[in-house]
Amino acid sequence: MEIGKMYINGEWVAAVDAGTWKVHNPATGELVGEVAFGGGVEANQAIAAAHAAFPAWSGLTPRERAKYLLKLHDLVRANRDDLAERISAEMGKPLREAKGEVLGAADNFLWYAEEAKRVYGETIPSSVPGKRLFVLRQPVGVVAAITPWNFPVNMVARKLAPALAAGCTVILKPAESTPLSAIRLFELMEEAGFPAGVANLVIGNPAAIGEAFLASEHVRKIAFTGSTRVGKLLMAGAARTVKRVSLELGGHAPVLVFADANLDQAVHGVFESKYRTSGQQCICANRLYVEDSIHDAFVEKLKERILAAKVGDGREKGVEIGPLVNAAAVEKVMQHVDDAVSKGAKAVVGGHRLTEGAYSQGHFMAPTLLTDVDETMLVCQQETFGPVLPVLRFQTEDEAIERANHTNYGLAAYVYTNNLSRALRVSEKLEYGMVGVNDGEFTQTQAPFGGFKESGLGREGGHHAMDEFLEVKMVSIALD
């Protein structure tokens, strides 16, 4: 098996100390790859390369930068199946989801190729005679991007595409558990002809690489998706050199299902939101609030849908729910289930590991639905990041909103109702950066993505993401 390498300054390189990292399929335990495993030395090499490449890359016209992104878009789409198979092999998600992720990644490169041309300046009327005021928007500089394992291609694209379009150069540090997809994406970037040093790939020790990013005066921006705990550490570390940061952190998404909702539509949306990616995404439903008068009917419908879902290796036909990423993830999910059951909750579906037969070598959890839940339970206080959904009853709209907002998180929320006034009213009162109304899958390339409170800073997606990688410069000219 060939060892995957890092990509620094246009060259594929091994770790300085020859260290490697083995990648296993979470569904089967099989070895699917081995990659170079670096640290601070390699990170500093990549920073130097990105710093050296910045003047030429930022000096290109937006149309010239767009040509590279458009070529990459075409290559990603052409290699959809290969990338999807890598995603499924290294993190377990079903191939159907993985193929959708790849197309989403391609859309990012297409969208930001166009947005590169729309970085406009301003002319401001001066209050002083004989002067002219102009505003320029210029790339921030070298960007360090740190991405998670749950979307190992699309999360990379969501950071690289706007950064490169804006004229920044980039160092990517992907999650160490899912480097194979990132390596393939960088092979396509090389094929697209990106100049050396413009985009660099460093795989390895998170603490050592992160420290190199934070310590360097050349790195002017950190773009991170991951846990709130790590995001806070990066934010504090960035203060040492006053770097800009954008953080897409943890979520604890509430779903509010009102009695006037279309129950079939709500069941479909809740299932997709909760059990897609096996519940391992920051915007997935984490607390389900159902109006008391429809609670039993809704739970029964959702139970039937969950029982109909096939759990297994994501590469198998018909699988809707794959494994969790590792054993630690299963342990955390079971801790939440055991805590809830010990305090009186009932598992109407699931509630246990899957360990027999085809599941014996993987990290599988039965999709779980809990009733008789209250907010003292861990499953209602923490982000579970697994296929477990607690159901809680509510009586009034105001009560539902208050309980939904009672958290330090504020990433995504969902509302199911056929009352337009209620939809608008509740959406405005929910303290979340994104709200899906009768919609369990709202993410689109052209829309802003990000959260309130401890769920992050800044936005990815849409034209808003370009602002994250641009500085605003004022120029005042005194005329003769």
TrEMBL record:
Domain of life assignment: Bacteria
Q: Name one GO molecular function term.
A: succinate-semialdehyde dehydrogenase (NAD+) activity
Q: What are the entry keywords?
A: Oxidoreductase
Family affiliation = Belongs to the aldehyde dehydrogenase family.
Asked whether the UniProt record includes Zinc among its keywords, one would answer no
Q: What is this protein called?
A: Succinate-semialdehyde dehydrogenase / glutarate-semialdehyde dehydrogenase
**SUPFAM superfamilies attached here?**
ALDH-like (SSF53720)
UniProt record, GO biological process: gamma-aminobutyric acid catabolic process
- Domain (Aldehyde dehydrogenase) spans 12-475
Q: Name one Pfam family in it.
A: Aldedh
